[in-house]
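WARN no homologs supplied; continuing
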Amino acid sequence: MGAKQSSRNRIWLTAERIGNSKSFQSLTSVAQFVIDILAWVLAVAIALVMRSYLQGEVDIRGVVQDTLIRVLPVVSVVQALTGYIVGIYRRRWRYGSFDEVKGLILSALITTVVLMGIRFLDTSVDAFPRSAIIAGGIFGLFFTTASRYTWRLVREQLRRPSAHNSTKLIIYGAGEGGIQIVNTMLRNPNSMYLPVAFLDDNSKTHRLRISGVPVLGGRDEIAKVAQRTGASTLLIAIPSADSIVVSEIVELARQSNLEVKILPVVQSLDDREVDTADIRDLTDEDLLGRRRVKINLDEISQYLVNRRVLVTGAGGSIGSELCRQLVRFNPGELIMLDRDESALHEVQLSIYGRALLDTPQTVLADLRDKKAINEIFETRKPQVVFHAAALKHLPLLERYPHEAYQTNVLGTLTMLSAAQRAGVEVFVNISTDKAANPISVLGFSKRIAERLTAAFAFNSGPGKYISVRFGNVLGSRGSVLMSFRDQITKGGPVTVTHRGVTRYFMTISEAVQLVVQAGAIGQTGEVLVLDMGKPVNIHDVAEQLVKNSGKPIKIEVVGLRVGEKVNEELFSEGEIDERPRHPLISHVLVKAIDQTSVVENPSDSRELMIRLLQEQ
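OK structure emitted
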């Protein structure tokens, strides 16, 4: 069977190469014209036979033969002219498409009208019957359309993947995303997947056939449909599905021994069609919830296109994704700064496909080195700055508060001062939800960084200085999901600090998109808080991951660590959730802090940070 499919593929590929040649296209147009003339001859003949039969003509054959001899040249000329004018012989429409059908309808209508006009000018005794002209036009349209649609069916059958060489696939979701991916599969003879059924919870779609693929029910029918079709894989093709829906579908699919794939969010189904390359394995992040983020490209382009953009912490999880997304907006120069040379190598390689670290794109420097930072701003003169560099691991910073102060506070102050002197247009400080009503060293340091940014906002001239605050980022280094995965890989136990702990989660891509948007819509001095959706119970996450692993792993509750909250917050006391520009971005004002109160080498960094936040 594999040899048969391979042979069919070779036939298709050969036909495609021949079909794409200009000489063949010209020959095809001529052949199609001949077929159309034959179709019209058949149509007129049938119309004449029907008329003669209804009128009781004895010599039907003689009437038809005599009339056709006189009419055929006229029909040929009229069809050729109208077909050329309408475009059905000089444009390349897909056979059987709506565009071509519209052209054929117009051509048949014009041909019929012209023939009718010629008939009214014909005063001979044996003039061509008017009824036959009208009937012939209808039959002519039918036959010319049928010939094209038949060829389309042949082409699509040749393109269709074989069940012997492809994985039978159930598509969950009969919406736009599911329809696009099915059409893509059915047009590729080498597709890895053969769609055999749709499933959708919308009962209105049940019993429909979409591109020849039947809709066989909703999620409750997964097991029955899998057995009926012999499918081994289920594809979730609903970009807007939340974590609850995804988890329920996954559970039902796995009960039926189906492998689960997912079609991830694309920015807009109108921008491009989804492709089989978009299909990927299900990840733990999918089970925690996904949102579709829309960003205003026009708004963003105004402050990024042709600008010199500097990203600190460019090798980190947030910084590297930020760099990858910023490239899309064609900055005049992208300057990637980090103190980790390996991280710089990785991000440059991921963006440009080469990473010799010998170009001005990468800058090796530490925020604590004032001289180096000032020199970078003086020589490179960035116009937009995304400050993503920070120390972020809460328990470690509880042990070493001085390090948090040196990087998160003094490092941010160094960046702000250099940006002010260089006349930076937009400065975006990336913060954390730990800065809202802080109780940890990490929270204290990031809250002070927010307030320092606000202080420069009102003392820096025309530049815009804002902070962006969000919570846990899925997939970032050191995130709870990565810790859980490592523990599961090692056989457990999986450790959770508290059964009631909840955290806000967001994917890296979503967080960065909203950070970039925030830089466009934020007003100087504001802290923009990204909507993280509903908080997720960490113990439930651990249970889900253990369940997915299929391993008998225990979950241990070890108690909250110093500086940890049971429930994280996005807003401090007195901050009001207002969203004037974007439904997922809140704008709040924070009190500025006097930069002169920031001491270079405090004896007790923790106490100093607490005092700064209490006194000012």
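The CA atoms of residues 262 and 283 lie 9 Å apart.
OK
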